[in-house]
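Lab notebook page, bench 4
Experiment: in silico fold of construct C2
Operator: M.H.
Input chain length: 157 residues
Purpose: comparison with the prior construct
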Amino acid sequence: MAMRGPVHFDAVLRPNRSLGGRGFVALMIGLAAISFAGGIAFVSVGAWPVFGFLGIDVLLIYAAFRASYRSGRLVETVRLTDDALEVRRVDAYGRGAAWRVPPLWARVEIDNPGEHDCRVTVRSHGQSVVLGAFLSPSERRDLAEALRAALARRRGA
């Protein structure tokens, strides 16, 4: 069902990944070089099995970064129009889900504001959805305030 009317609030939320593609390549080359040099040093003193373990470490670090980048593909879209507040979430594997409520009934709550584990929750008719769990506490607070203000403007219109 298409959302009608002017858009009062539109936010696309994505997890932050501070290390970009070129930085990741540089990091992996640096780690591989250090591990290779260390492995050569161990081979030269006769501890040749250590060389293989140093390579395994680099592969495990690579796998951990790839998993982190995959989880960074999560996207949440929050859109408020005259007829609906809609939250769409697409996870790291491309599976999507949507939650849609009338804006007059939606309530935005933030529990433990300022704490690291605070949560922004939108509630309506006994249902709820948590927004931006991957955001920093200050970003979650800003999101809650902006969405509350947009809902208040919408209700006043």
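Observations: The beta strands are 7-13, 75-81, 85-90, 96-101, 107-111, 119-124, 127-131. The chain has two domains: 7-15+75-156, 21-71.
Next step: discuss at group meeting.
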